[in-house]
DNA sequence: CCCTTTTCACCTAGGTGGTAAGAT
DNA sequence: ATCTTACCACCTAGGTGAAAAGGG
């Protein structure tokens, strides 16, 4: 499934005439598994992390493109797909449920991206830079744990319009 | 709009480990404009061609990919989009209505594709090869000129299922 | 007990030819 | 007359959370 809300970044300081790949991966924040304690509205440690999963990388579909092109637009990762299926063969990013993760944005000079692949770790070294934003850390779930998140999802995601109460359009099928 | 039926090709003889772009462009067959004569079921010359339009290239979305990848699959151009709007800014291939055209498939070695662009002519020379299939020549229209074409479109295109007679599912709105 | 999967109605997004109106 | 455009009902394709069913 997609990540929502999606990561969106603006980039400056690139060489306008150089070609770059932009990619995202998602790394564990710690070695723990979590559970949500409803009465205190907090995530609590609930044991150690599950075993690691195959590394996956989302290569932004506009890649490769010039620095000028990347800097002219907001770069959105809304088509990035996540799964909890460790045997996934669709190239989706594989995560464990109930774990904390940090998305990372990678800027890779084209000549350093020759072995860039959705199923290999992002290369490191000269011509490759990684950026993380601590405010984008999130915890994975298979069902929402509190109503603020549910409301955010329904109010902001266009595909969830059918669940909005506004305008009294809410007429869901009645069970007979 | 899309071209239907779409061009589909199989390629052999590539270097499995070399990277290639695959692209398509569509060139005029002659310098004429045509009209369809219904009673003889034939296209007849109806004057000289309209003035040329900006060249456009459809770069196959799997590009670039290895020779191995290209040779393993049927390469389909079903997402290629056409328009008759000479001012198009969506990167669609621009054609004149009532003219004859020949689609061409281009195989471009990655190192020869540095100035490959949707709005520039396909490069020529070393590392670039072009292929045309005379049986794929077609004439552009804005309305179908005979029922065989209409039937082919309706029967074969999944998006036209609503127009099929089969199974007596045909219940279109009645004008009051 | 808590987490996960499946199915569902309800959406967005966009590809069909028919039809009627518009343009030349 | 002939070609073109705009709008329509009808599709494909796939992204939503709710609810029910499944699993350890």
UniProtKB/TrEMBL annotation, chains A, B:
It is found in: Nucleus. The chain holds residues 1 to 176 of 211 of the full protein. Its main location: nucleus. This is T-box domain-containing protein. Keywords: DNA-binding, Nucleus, Transcription, Transcription regulation. The keyword Transcription applies. It comes from Felis catus (Cat). Residues 1-165 form the T-box domain. It comes from the Eukaryota.
């Amino acid at each position: 499934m997609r990540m929502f809300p999606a990561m969106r970044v603006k980039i400056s300081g690139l060489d306008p005439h150089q070609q770059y790949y932009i990619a995202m991966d998602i790394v564990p924040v710690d070695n723990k598994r979590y559970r949500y304690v409803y009465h205190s509205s907090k995530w609590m440690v609930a044991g150690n992390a599950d075993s690691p999963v195959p590394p996956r990388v989302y290569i932004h579909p506009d890649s490769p493109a010039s620095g000028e092109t990347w800097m002219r637009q907001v770069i959105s990762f809304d088509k990035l797909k996540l799964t909890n299926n460790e045997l996934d063969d669709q190239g989706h990013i594989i995560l464990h449920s109930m774990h904390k993760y940090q998305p990372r944005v990678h800027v890779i000079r084209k000549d350093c991206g020759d072995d860039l692949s959705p199923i290999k770790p992002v290369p490191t070294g000269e011509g490759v830079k990684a950026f993380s934003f601590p405010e984008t850390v999130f915890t994975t779930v298979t069902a929402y744990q509190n109503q603020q998140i549910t409301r955010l999802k329904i109010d902001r995601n266009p595909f969830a319009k059918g669940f909005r109460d506004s305008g009294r359009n809410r007429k869901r099928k009645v069970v007979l």
